[in-house]
Amino acid sequence: MAHNRHKRSLHARRSARAVKIAAPLAVLATLAPVSVGVLSGDIDPSLNMSGVAFAGSAGSADRVPEVSRSVPRLVPTAAELERVARKSATDKAIKNASERLWTTEDVKVWSGPGRDATLKGELKAAREVLVTGRRDKGRAEIVQQREARWIDESVLSTYKPIIASSGLSMAPCPRTSGDIGLTQKATYVLRSVCAAFPQISTYGGRDGHGEHVNGEAIDIMTSDYALGTAIAEFLIAHSSEFGIEDVIWRQQIWMPGYGWKGMSNRGSATANHYDHVHVKVY
């Protein structure tokens, strides 16, 4: 009996010793292929192995690999949100644009309404433009080649302006019989207006009343508001070349240095110059 107990005790000590030896050997057996893999290039040497449990390691059954929290969260800034909102509003304005207006004079085209806007080009007078209806800082938003652009809102009109088709001229007017008794200066005005505004077919020259007596005045016959206004502006723009003393149109008189002033009622459309533009030279 005592002999058997001795054998069992000896067997237990040998088993415990075997476990002590086997555990490190198991770890070495596990690490060896890993090391070989690293050296052979099969495993990335920079790989973090701290979260991997090896055979025989303490607490390996309870260890869970940690999730990295080093990736930053992408939160848009206030400026980015504002840019997105502004672009969305612009896209919507372009999509809904339907009104068309006309430029009354040459105008610069800008990227935006602010002072920091960049110059994008120029539009000539009498150009039709598509407008969005948005206005800011004295500029109006237009659509140009599917892009939002801004121009001076004061040059926009619902009517197509009438622009002189050519500059000053001394070529004879084919729509009058001669120069209708005018002085040389007045003839220059007549021929230039005739060349610039071929719509006009009737002119009044020298006669026995008022400023027409000496052949220094011309009546340019039209009742059309837009056409008559364009002619009056043409005359004023070249007043120094023509030597103009006054221009009368629709009961108003323009004189160099004074601008437009109202006139008293003379009793009829003709007397009040609603059916013609009157111009007199020195």
From TrEMBL:
<protein>
    <recommendedName>
        <fullName>ARB-07466-like C-terminal domain-containing protein</fullName>
    </recommendedName>
</protein>
<dbReference type="InterPro" id="IPR058593">
    <property type="entry name" value="ARB_07466-like_C"/>
</dbReference>
<feature type="domain" description="ARB-07466-like C-terminal">
    <location>
        <begin position="183"/>
        <end position="274"/>
    </location>
</feature>
<dbReference type="Pfam" id="PF26571">
    <property type="entry name" value="VldE"/>
</dbReference>
